[in-house]
Amino acid sequence: MRIAIATSLVFATAGLAAGHRHQHHHAHEKRIPAPNVEVPRADTPTVTVYELGGRLISEAECAEGIKNGTLIFADGGDLEPVSSSPTPSPEVHNNQYKPSSVPERSTSAAPSSSPEPEHTPEPEPEPEPSPKPRPHSDSGHYGSSGVDRDFPDGELDCDTFPSEYGAVPLTYLGLKGWTGIQLPRVSNSRGYDNIFSPTSGGCSEDGSYCSYACPPGYQKSQWPELQGATGQSVGGIKCRGGKLWLTNPGMSKRLCMKGTTAIDVKVQNDLGDQACVCRTDYPGDESETVPLATFPGNSYPLTCPEADNYYNWQGKQTSAQYYVNNEGIPQEKACRWGSASEPVGNFAPLNLGVGYSSGTAWLSIFQNYPTTNAKLDFSIEIIGNDGGYDNLSGRCKYSNGKYCSGENYNICNSREGCTVAVTSGEVTFKFSHD
Questions:
Q1: Least packed by Cβ within 10 Å: which of 15, 45, 195, 292?
Q2: What are the structural domain ranges in the chain?
Q3: Which residues, by range, are in coiled-coil regions (predicted)?
Q4: What is the 3-state secondary structure (H, E, C) of the chain?
């Protein structure tokens, strides 16, 4: 389910609660009429098919099999029966099986039965405190290059991750660098349906759409014209005939493209530790996997899509949504599917909304509601040129569980958030403890 915005605000609260669908619209303080822009949501319906031995089984049968240990997901996402001890089942989100990790069987040898001589252990030295993460001032640590190179259409093998053409490899997700893989089982004039999303393996099966992250300041440029038949979004390049092909060469012949250049949008980290911001992989499987890891004392470009020149969902323009995790949580844990047991990933406490249309950028801070009521453990303020507010339509700040606007930050709420508009210059989300 997505929310189409009318006139009060570009961005609406969006979130995912495991196993539930939510339909909420939260009006923000109206300052400048906003265009009709569509906000990506993590809880868009995606149809998952469960197949065992060539036979389709129901989701209930699959869930029961995983629960009682008679079925597991093998490499490549296929179901197979289990003949030994059961494997604990991970969380199921949005009808897609998305474990954060796969338990490994122990391969260590059994301890020797020979008795060992007794000895008095020496006292262990005091452990040294872990060093703070080293600050990063550019995007070079993201493991990709060639962001401004044209992609060699139809030349790379499907099992080659295109990091030399700007795509950022995220190997910790278990998909050989890709952020998500979608394999439609049904295709007709209405669109794709029965879209299978494997949780391991790479982009090797013919017909797969393979999505990827881009460096800070850039965003994915590739998605097919044909989209989901029931509202699913599909994104990435395509594996066809064993080779990787662009799906939207009319938009760009490169894998990554910049957002708007009319406004300079940034994130500034004035904290004592790293803080991760995770963009929804949209269009795609809409997981929170596109990372921006920020470190103390540095500022980073935050991609702001230009709605007139980016993805449209069912004819509606779209913006970007980011999930902000608590201070100190590393990227590998922050930018992936989480669970209600901990406020990370899609259960992160707070969202940022960013978009540009018709000469105006809209920036929002709001609670990740109804997914979670958790409170972010640092403050975020939207500031303008030279740290001031002159080029902003108003003020917007999160601090201590409250989202406040007004000249003196005297208009506050705990969920709906706040929004500002800007038509020129710089605008920064400042992370700090105040």
A1: 45
A2: 3-44+139-432, 50-94
A3: none
A4: CCEECCCCCCCCCCCCCCCCCCCCCCCCCCCCCCCCEEECCCCCCCCCCEEECCEEECHHHHHHHHHHCCEEECHHHCEEECCCCCCCCCCEECCEECCCCCCCCCCCCCCCCCCCCCCCCCCCCCCCCCCCCCCCCCCHHHCCCCCCCCCCCCCCECCCCCHHHCCECEHHHCCCECCEEEEEEEEECCEEEEEECCCCCCCCCCCCEEECECCCCEEECCCCCCCECCCCCCCCEEEECCEEECCCCCCCCCCEEECCCCCEEEEEECCCCCEEEEECCCCCCCCCCEEEEECCCEEEECCCCEHHHCCEECCEEECEEEEECCCCCCHHHHCCCCCCCCCCHHHCCEEEEEEEECCEEEEEEEECCCCCCCCCCCEEEEECHHHCCCCECCCCEEECCEEEECCCCCEEECCCCEEEEECCCEEEEEEECC
